Amino acid sequence: MKLKGKKLAVVVALGLVGLVVAFFVRPTSLERYLNSIGRNVRTHYVDLFPDYSHYAVCETDSAGFTAFQQEFQLAKFTDKDAQRDDAAFISWRSSGRAPDWWTPSPDLSDTYFRFDGDHWIMGKLEGNRLYVYAGCH
Question: Which tens digit of pLDDT belongs to each residue from 61-118?
Fold first, then answer.
């Protein structure tokens, strides 16, 4: 009888480990979307509950970038936007948590963004690389 209880405990523990692994290795909705418009998608997610930073890059063309802008309802960042109280969050500078492959230029002239409360998403196309940063702070 004791052996059956131990086997059950092992099976339950392995099932829980499987669920945790499946949760953390599943692609995010952003990653799935970028795979639909580009290739060689890379993402890096930093969870600082309740805050987060999500870095992503993929290879795409101008049509893929236009589709990205429309999908996420992004607007071009302008000098007027730079006067917003929350404009400090619109930056391509790394917070120190970005991966090594995160190499966008700091230039904001071709940046598109959207704020939604404390959350934001921004993107820009440099050559054939679409850089995306989403965050909450």
Answer: 999 999 999 999 998 887 676 566 655 667 677 666 788 998 999 888 899 988 787 7
Is position 48 within any domain? yes
89: Cβ contacts below 8 Å, ≥ 6 apart: 120, 135, 137
Cα 83 from Cα 63, distance rounded (Å):
30
Residue 113 lies in a domain: yes
For residues 30 and 56, the answer to whether their CB atoms sit within 8 Å is: yes
pLDDT attached to residue 14: 42
Q: What burial class does residue 130 get, using C-beta atoms within 10 Å of its C-beta: 0-12 exposed, 13-18 middle, 19+ buried?
A: buried
Tell whether 16 is covered by a domain.
no
Position 8 pLDDT exceeds 90: no
Instruction: Let me know if residue 132 belongs to a domain.
Output: yes
Give the residue numbers spanning the domain of 95.
27-136
Domain count, the chain: 1
